[in-house]
Design brief:
Elements: H1 8-18, E1 27-30, E2 39-43, E3 48-53, H2 66-76, E4 86-90, H3 93-96, E5 100-104, H4 121-139, H5 157-172, H6 178-186, E6 198-200, E7 209-211, E8 218-221, E9 228-230, H7 232-240, H8 258-261, H9 266-277, H10 285-309, H11 317-321, H12 324-335
Antiparallel strand pairs: 1-2, 2-3, 3-5, 4-5, 6-9, 7-8
Length: 342
């Protein structure tokens, strides 16, 4: 199903109501990237905004949760975790075709190549440190202090996540992946202790981060649709997958000359996070990595299914979705690896 741009004439009255001082004319442009929710730049003579909406067509239950994105970004605005200011949520499908929200457009740099090839070695190290600081800041916020105590169910976070992504995987799969079935059996038998309910982003990676135009500073963290209250170590492990995935496999940097690039080792990066948060990194890091790769493979399977159904949000969805099998294979190989810590 083709994703048409929102009609500026239909959209403008809603924007005028929710953004004081808005003045047209208004133009709408599709932004590239993103595999889940279609994203558009809204431009006026004096300011720019971003519209995020659910895709058209039949959607998986609990997926494409732009309502959750809107809520968590509204709660976090102005705190140590930089997010764009949001202006409103609209559930009237007659305006833009599906539910959407609008936020400020934040100027800066987004690195599509997570190795940040345009930076010098010292700059790259500083950017990684800034990225570490933001996820640490997120995990030290008390959800109750920002009216997010009820943003997720308390307790048994990973157990519920395993069940959720198993369901999502099976609802999306077109061809069974043997390693996924093995992991689905293994995970419930090796659940770690809970580490407390914190706000988790759910998809913390380089290309969801807007860096300052010239400085090693994060100015916006984007793509909050998987955010909830959960185990911060699971959230951090999803981020640390990049140290275990090759550049050709979902934008990792495994196998690269990290020291030469100025990218910290996994251990050094984890130690910096622990110093900032006071959260001790688990001894058996293997479970968290296997769980993270399983979850990623389930997400990729959903992307592949949307591509096959014709309602994918990105032209490269089919190519991205095909990475589900090798990610699952890498996860299963980790199951048989020795226990480890970063």
């Amino acid at each position: 199903m083709r994703e048409e741009n929102p009609d500026p004439a239909a959209l403008y009255p809603w924007l005028e109501e929710h953004i004081p001082g808005l003045r047209g004319p208004l133009t709408v442009e599709r932004l590239k990237g993103g595999q889940s929710n279609p994203t558009f730049r809204l431009s006026t003579p004096s300011a720019a905004y971003v519209l995020r909406r659910k895709p058209f067509g039949i959607l998986l239950p609990s997926a494409h949760a732009v309502e959750r994105e809107y809520r968590v970004m509204r709660a976090l605005h102005g705190l140590a975790v930089p997010v764009p200011r949001v202006h409103g949520l609209c559930e009237d499908a007659s305006i833009a075709g599906t539910t959407f929200f609008v936020m400020d457009y934040v100027a800066g740099r987004i690195f599509e190549d997570s190795r940040m090839p345009t930076l010098a070695r010292e700059e790259r190290n500083a950017h990684f440190d800034a990225m570490n600081g933001v996820i640490a800041a997120l995990h030290t916020i008390d959800p109750g202090s920002v009216d997010l105590a009820e943003f997720g169910r308390p307790g048994n976070y990973i157990e519920r996540q395993v069940a959720r992504w198993t369901k999502q995987y099976r609802a999306s799969m077109m061809e069974p992946i043997e390693e996924m079935e093995r992991i689905i059996e293994w995970l419930p038998l090796h659940l770690p202790p809970e580490h407390g309910g914190r706000i988790v982003h759910g998809d913390y990676k380089v290309d969801n981060i807007v860096f300052h135009p010239t400085e090693a500073c994060v100015v916006a963290l984007l793509d909050w649709e998987l955010a909830t209250i959960g185990d911060p170590l699971a959230d951090f492990a999803f981020h640390l997958m990049a140290w275990h995935l090759e550049p050709t496999l979902f934008r990792g940097w495994a196998g690269e000359d990290l020291a030469g690039l100025g990218i910290p080792s996994e251990r050094a990066y984890a130690e910096a996070y622990a110093r900032r948060t006071g959260i001790a990194v688990a001894t058996d890091w293997r479970f968290y990595l296997v769980f993270s790769m399983f979850r990623l493979a389930a997400i990729l399977t959903g992307i592949s299914k949307r591509a096959e159904s014709g309602n994918a949000s990105d032209a490269h969805a089919a190519e991205v979705g095909r990475q589900a099998r090798p990610v699952a294979q890498k996860a299963w190989a980790l199951v048989n690896a020795p226990k480890n810590s970063p």
